[in-house]
Design a protein that fits this description.
Elements (H helix, E strand, L loop, with lengths): L6 E6 L4 H16 L2 E7 L3 H4 L7 H27 L5 E5 L4 H9 L4 E5 L15 H9 L3 E4 L11 E5 L4 H15 L3 E7 L3 H17 L5 E5 L6 H11 L4 E5 L2 E4 L2 E4 L1 H9 L4 E4 L1
Parallel strand pairs: 1-2, 1-4, 2-3, 4-5, 6-7, 6-9, 7-8, 9-12
Antiparallel strand pairs: 5-12, 10-11
Helix pairs in contact: 1-3, 4-5, 8-9
Length: 277
């Protein structure tokens, strides 16, 4: 089928969460028969902090720390690979980092990224908006794992945040391989016009059914500035282990600025979120 999941790209770095991302990707790849590339992406400190080049002691510390972080990430990769993980390793050290990573993301069906959390060493140079910028620049769907989750489960109960927009449609289409293997799927729509939403709900349920996915639909009246909180609350109520939604925002001064709901979800997420722009 044209919507099969065959190539995963995992963001590799020196954070403790890299092992979580790679282990999760390994289980996901085994379920779908997909390949994995772990792409080590860390800013080149010589470019990100050029002032260090003029201070010998700081330059040495910078280089040593960067080498240590790379070795730490590579060690995690090799340990999981020796345990049976089928994956390849690649690196990118360009600055700014997100566009370089996004360029490699063009060749993946799904990205596995992590929620931004406190860094250590030179990884503190990782931009806070890395996940959403990569999603926006690459046009590829991404499964973002929460920073605090110890071992996210594979998608069994899924909530789809649906509104009739390009972002939502792309997210749902990207999630189809996961939705077909899920135990239950709930479609959540929102807005003041319940009658119009009912028609939209019927359309998305028919689309999902045509792709072998049985889903339930529900509508909520909610203020736009509370939408992100509602999505996370309903996902919690349903004990969902995946939220599917569009990633909305706009460019400003060459930066990607998230819309309110997307920003809230990425900041406060408690479950994996599949996003597409």
């Amino acid at each position: 089928m044209s919507d099969e999941l065959k190539q995963l790209l995992v963001h590799a770095d020196a954070s403790p969460q890299f092992a979580q991302r790679l282990e999760f990707a390994g289980r996901l790849a085994a379920r779908h028969g997909a390949g994995i590339t772990a792409l080590y992406a860390s800013p080149s400190a010589s470019e990100a902090l050029p002032v260090a080049a003029g201070i010998p002691g700081l330059a040495v510390q910078r280089d040593n720390t960067q080498d240590t972080e790379l070795a730490r990430a590579r060690s995690v990769f090799e340990q999981l690979k020796s345990a049976g993980l089928r994956a390849s390793w690649a690196e990118v050290h360009e600055f700014p980092l997100a566009p370089a990573f996004a360029q490699q993301a063009l060749y993946a069906d799904l990205l596995v990224l992590g929620q931004h959390g406190p860094g250590e060493g030179w990884s503190t140079l990782m931009p806070a908006d890395f996940p959403e910028t990569v999603i926006a620049l690459s046009g590829r769907p991404a499964l973002v794992l929460p920073y605090t989750s110890a071992r996210p489960g594979l998608p069994g109960k899924v909530v789809i945040a649906w509104k009739p927009t390009r972002g939502s449609a792309r997210a749902v289409a990207a999630a189809l391989p996961l939705l077909r293997k899920a135990g239950s799927v709930h479609v959540l729509s929102w807005g003041a016009d319940a009658a119009a939403a009912a028609g939209e709900g019927s359309n998305i349920l028919s689309y999902l059914q045509a792709h072998g996915v049985q889903a339930q639909w529900q509508h909520e009246a909610v203020e736009p500035d509370k939408l992100g909180e509602l999505l996370l609350s309903r996902a919690f109520d349903l004990q969902a282990d995946l939220l599917v939604m569009g990633c909305y925002g706009h460019t400003r001064a060459h930066e990607w600025v998230l819309g309110g709901a997307s920003r809230t979800v990425l900041k406060s997420m408690t479950l994996p979120v599949l996003m597409a722009h």
